[in-house]
């Protein structure tokens, strides 16, 4: 029989250690987020439904969106043991320059709708994390303003080819004059994807004050107060537009763009040129032949063509075909540091993330983006240690497979 006794105070005292009191509610909330899924749930609670769905959703039945996520669920790492993983180096080079992670903050449209701090907050967080940030043509901060508000960030500019080529040339010129490092041409938008969540929510840009949105606003007062007491919410490059995102794509983007237009763009821009939205080796090689310095294997986060190929599954063949002629990146479904490690092992120089940092932005503004990047970095270090690799260069194809 076990003999029982009363514990001594000296034995109890080490167990009675409370956590430090955090007075700032945003800091307290973000510290409680252990994963990007936690940040996603915080974002869902803190923003109106239409705004959250705009960020979280995809096109049509969202088959591509689900498959991108499920592809990472099929990842199986092949670990080695008894390796010195006491020090982990997550750094790499992107476009010939050092990056603290194989990660780029992707372009996202209408970012100030998710949180009033918008693109500058994301760019500053990117600078602190040591990774590039990409400003979208559909951003709510201008090329010039972002350069002033985030001068230490590696800034890329994402371009859609507009029907109005002179307008496109003006954006290219502004990016060059304001120190943007690279130009990212998105090519998978000859038409706008049918995003049914936006249709069902009556989601317009800017958000319309209908009876439904006013009622939803009662549940999210801080979001509406921030919206109504800061600068008007509008596209920095297209301030007169009103309607849905699909309407915008139909009215503004050029469905007649071809490889000749990519060659034209190459002649307009002297810096690194990245082509985003490729899903076949044939298209990737054609883009490189036309002057691209890098390509992004992407299905636009599942927001354009539903039931399209899954980027992670297409990545190895495209990386093998392109070889060392250009850098290969990928996006779609990345929601953890181990996802980043898997994509690199399958051939990506770096991954682009959008929803991952937007969840953080919606959950807690600039500090929320910091938290999202901190989570990704911590998870990547842990994954690398458990795989048995000490550097990004060791994340090779023999370390991962898709079940």
Plain-language structure description:
By secondary structure, the chain is of the alpha/beta class. The protein has one domain: TIM Barrel (Alpha-Beta Barrel). 45% of the residues lie in helices and 12% in strands. The protein is built from 18 helices and twelve strands. It has helices spanning 9-12, 25-31, 36-46, 49-56, 63-73, 111-114, 118-129, 143-149, 165-177, 196-201, 211-219, 221-228, 245-252, 259-268, 281-289, 311-322, 337-345, 355-387, and strands spanning 75-77, 92-94, 97-99, 103-105, 133-135, 155-159, 182-186, 273-278, 294-297, 327-331, 350-353, 400-402. An eight-stranded parallel sheet has the order 4-11-10-9-8-7-6-5. It has a two-stranded antiparallel sheet with strand order 1-12. Helix 15 links the parallel strand 8 and strand 9. Helix 3 packs antiparallel against helix 18 and helix 17 (337-345) packs across helix 18. The longest helix is centred in the last third of the chain and has 33 residues, at 355-387. The protein starts with 8 loop residues before the first helix and ends with a strand. The mean pLDDT is 91.
């Amino acid at each position: 029989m076990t003999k029982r006794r009363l514990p001594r105070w000296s034995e109890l005292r080490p167990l009675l250690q409370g956590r430090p009191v955090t007075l700032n509610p945003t800091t307290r909330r973000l510290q409680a987020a252990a994963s990007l899924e936690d940040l996603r749930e915080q974002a869902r609670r803190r923003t109106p439904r239409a705004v959250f769905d705009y960020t979280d959703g995809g096109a049509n039945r969202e088959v591509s969106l689900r498959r991108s996520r499920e592809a990472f669920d099929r990842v199986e790492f092949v670990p080695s043991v008894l390796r010195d993983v006491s020090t982990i180096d997550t750094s790499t080079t992107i476009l010939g320059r050092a990056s603290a992670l194989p990660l780029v903050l992707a372009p996202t449209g209408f970012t100030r709708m998710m949180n009033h701090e918008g693109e500058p907050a994301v760019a500053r967080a990117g600078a602190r994390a040591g990774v590039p940030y990409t400003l979208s043509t559909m951003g709510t901060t201008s090329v010039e303003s972002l350069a002033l508000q985030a001068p230490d960030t590696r800034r890329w500019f994402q371009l859609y080819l507009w029907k109005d080529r002179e307008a496109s040339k003006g954006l290219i010129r502004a990016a060059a004059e304001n120190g943007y490092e690279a130009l990212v041409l998105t090519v998978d938008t000859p038409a706008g994807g049918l995003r049914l969540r936006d249709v069902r929510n009556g989601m317009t840009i800017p958000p319309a004050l209908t009876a439904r949105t006013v009622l939803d606003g009662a549940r999210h007062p801080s979001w509406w107060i921030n919206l109504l007491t800061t600068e008007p919410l509008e596209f920095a490059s297209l301030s007169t537009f009103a309607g849905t995102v699909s309407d915008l794509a139909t009215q503004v983007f050029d469905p007649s763009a071809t490889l000749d237009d990519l060659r034209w763009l190459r002649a307009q821009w002297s810096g690194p040129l990245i082509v985003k939205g490729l899903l076949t080796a044939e298209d990737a090689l054609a883009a490189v032949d036309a002057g691209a310095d890098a390509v992004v294997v992407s299905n636009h986060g599942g927001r354009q063509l539903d039931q399209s190929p899954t980027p992670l599954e297409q990545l190895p063949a495209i990386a093998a075909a392109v070889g060392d002629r250009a850098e290969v990146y990928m996006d779609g479904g990345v929601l953890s540091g181990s996802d980043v490690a898997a994509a690199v092992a399958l051939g990506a120089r770096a991954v682009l993330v959008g929803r991952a940092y937007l969840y953080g932005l919606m959950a807690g503004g600039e500090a929320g983006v910091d938290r999202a990047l901190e989570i990704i970095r911590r998870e990547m270090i842990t994954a690398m240690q458990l795989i048995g690799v000490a550097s990004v260069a060791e994340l090779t194809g023999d370390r991962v497979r898709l079940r």
